[in-house]
Amino acid sequence: MNLTNKNKLLIYIICIIAVISMVACVIGNVFNGKVEIDNDTGIANVALNSNYSAFANGSTYTYTDLNKVEAAHSDSSKSDTSVILVDREQNHGSLQNPYVINSLAQWTFFAGNTGASDVDKVYVLGSDITFSSGSFTPVPYFYGKFFGAGHTLYNVTYNFGSNNDCGVFRVLHANGIIADLNLQNVNITSTGGRVATLVGTTNGGDILNCHAKGSVAGVPTHVNVTAGTISQSYPVGGLIGRANGNGIKVYIYRCSVNVKITVNAALDGASVGGILGGFSGSDGTASSMIYDCVAIVDITNNSAGIDIWFGGIVNYNTFIGEQAIENCVSYIKATDNALHRVSWSSLFNGWAWTMSKLSIKNVFSDGILKFKGNSKVYGLPAAIYYCENQALSAISNVAITSENLNWYADNEFIVGNAQATLDVYVYRSLANTKYTGAAGLTQEDMYNKAQSDLPSAIWQQSGNITPSYMSNTDVTSTAGYTVDNAPNRNTNIKTEDFKIKYVNLENGAEKEYAGSETTYNYKDTTQMYTPSGKDSNHEFVGWTIDKTGNGETYKNIPSDLYGDVTVYAVWDVPQSSVSKESIISGESDGAFVKEYSDGSTLTLRADISITGMTNPNITYKWQKKGEGTVLGTSSTYSIANVAESGEYELHYTVTDKVEPLWRHSGKTAAQSAEITPGQLYVKDNTFTIDSTTAP
User: Fold this and answer.
1) Partners of 482 in the beta sheet?
2) Exposed/middle/buried for 195, CB within 10 Å: 0-12, 13-18, 19+?
């Protein structure tokens, strides 16, 4: 076929485009975390995003699992955490191979580059980070999963000016999760609303096992609305400012705060809460499940003549749905400079116009109230509500489930119509125990009961729930609450003193080397335990985290190893134990040369033997010398044609059946094998020479 110059040019262009596409694909694989092969181990590893770190293959990390929260909250015998085994073959940023943040630079990159495209991404804080003045950057919008792994952000200070949605994470979107993160000495300031230490606004995302100590300053307000319109609510909270949206169900589980809140309310009825400040909802479907939380709060309203509605755990506002406060403890020190309606409570408060259900169980609330220019100290009521209009209808008709309600109030401030408030426990005839300081009903009695009644599996440090601990609201004090000693903090999520367990695999069992366990910290590279071999045929190679034996081996702790791990001893044999390592002829005459004959082959046979191993498993790879193609994988290999003649090598691995990580890999010397040409003859005797075949 003749090609015109035009056609030749077209083909040339197509070829160039194909080459460019291939190059682009390779480059794309590098930047998008596609699989690469480690030339040393043969293990597939993905390309890493250089802006983050990664845990070593086989590391483990633990996180509070949202899917286990309800079960663990209801049944203390069940765990609320999951442990992930890191697999570097998975995409970087996945649950099995998360983006790891270890430094200020990595946090700053994370804060400036996360967004909607990260909805399936997982981030793990691998180390504590201490911020210096002006170095902290908040996260504007977060869609993924952030697991703090029990680590702490220290000295977080940020002034948001007049902006709304203020916190370490400004907006947490639906399906987003922040878990196991601590904030020590966090200070968030704004002249706007939706302000808190950790999250300014959650649009349905969940906050699990997070703990904060510090201060919040904001200007809570709201826009009066009618049903069917999402309220423009600007609450202030200790941990979370606002839960926003219809159809959301926010879990706030196992969290705690010791926070100083200062507000300058802009409108009567502004919403403030010790854990959650308030809501924005329009159709009565916004829900929150607040389980196993602690609030120690010092709050001051500095707005003259403008009141706030404050609940020690939460304030309920706008149009909301099912709510729960269960297994919670609070202590509130409130200072009211407004001198308007008195709407403060130690557990919850509210003026929500709808609420479908309310569960209050196993709660212990306490607090005091002071007024500007008045030296008297009053006890706070536990739960109050707005007693007019649609809010009164809401609290009158809501289905309430209550159990074990406890509160302390010496010299209680009595609410009533003058403050447009009602006592929910009284109004709804909820059985409760009021501690007043009398014999058997002291503050200490209540906190002792809290220690006894709260589930110990979650409240691992419940012994700290004492009058002196709870009433120390000074966020600069080291004598009371810290994120480390929070009564409900999950102490099983370790940040240091990880354990390496050393074992030998024998007959499918893991036999631990007694007294060998190593304690280490992330980034340690110290030498690992060196075991002694059973006999002279055992030569120690190193430790592997991959019990199949296909992973890397180590004698020093890998620098990126994290978490509690089990490692397995890998053994070889000394060369002196290799008694046979050759290729022998499989022919009866022992020859390596054979004349070609139709249907006949020349057979090569492996001759491998290791001293000390009884009937081991052997894998074979037959190759021509200098070529990488595997031609056969059995103990013999046959050639049949002249073209197959050449020098052959056998690569092999011998594995002990009792100890599968006692193995030896080797290669035989090259062996020549030759098929020589045979005699030529005519097979079909009907062949004749005639005029069609003759020249």
Assistant:
1) none
2) buried
Alpha carbon distance 695, 683 (integer Å): 22
- DSSP-based three-state secondary structure for 663: strand
* Spatial contact of 633 and 547, defined as CB atoms under 8 Å apart: no
Report residue 12 as tokens.
Answer: 């040339």
Compute the average pLDDT of residues 63-88: 97
Q: What is the pLDDT of residue 405?
A: 98
- C-alpha 520: how far from its chain's center? 21
What is the rounded distance in angstroms from the CA atom of residue 269 to the CA atom of residue 264?
A: 12
pLDDT tens, position by position, 10-44:
444 444 444 334 334 333 433 334 444 443 334 45
Contact call for residues 560 and 54 (beta carbons, < 8 A): yes
Residue 530 and residue 567 in contact, taking contact as beta carbons nearer than 8 Å: no
pLDDT of residue 252: 98
390: Cα within 13 Å, side-chain hemisphere: 13
Q: What is the 3-state secondary structure (H, E, C) of 114-129?
A: CCHHHCCCEEEECCCE
SS3 at position 113: helix
CA distance 460 to 469: 16
Q: What is the CA 399 to chain-centroid distance, rounded?
A: 36
Q: How far apart are CA 345 and CA 339, in angstroms?
A: 16
Terminal Cα distance for the chain, rounded:
31
- In angstroms, the CA 528 to CA 570 distance is 13
* Average pLDDT value for residue range 152-180: 98
Please give the pLDDT value at position 200: 98
Q: Do 140 and 171 form a contact (C-beta atoms < 8 A)?
A: yes
Please give the torsion angle defined by the CA atoms of residues 166, 170, 176 and 180, in that order, rounded to the nearest 10 degrees.
Answer: -60
- Could you give the C-alpha distances from 432 to 140, 363, 413, 604, in angstroms and in order? 42, 10, 17, 89
SS3 399: strand
Strand partners, 35: 46
Cβ pair 387, 350 in contact under 8 A:
no
Q: Is the distance from CB of 387 to CB of 421 less than 8 angstroms?
A: yes
How is residue 348 written in tokens?
């919850």
Cα–Cα dist 135/158, whole Å? 9
Q: What are the CA-CA distances from residue 612 to residues 504, 513, 528, 617 (Å)?
A: 17, 22, 27, 13
Q: Is the pLDDT of residue 59 over 50?
A: yes
Tokens of residue 127, six digits: 């180390």
pTM of the entire predicted model:
0.88
Q: How far is CA 517 from CA 67, 224, 551, 558, 561, in A?
A: 33, 63, 21, 16, 15
Q: What is the gyration radius of the CA atoms in the chain, in angstroms? A: 36
- How far, in Å, CA of 242 to CA of 240, rounded? 6
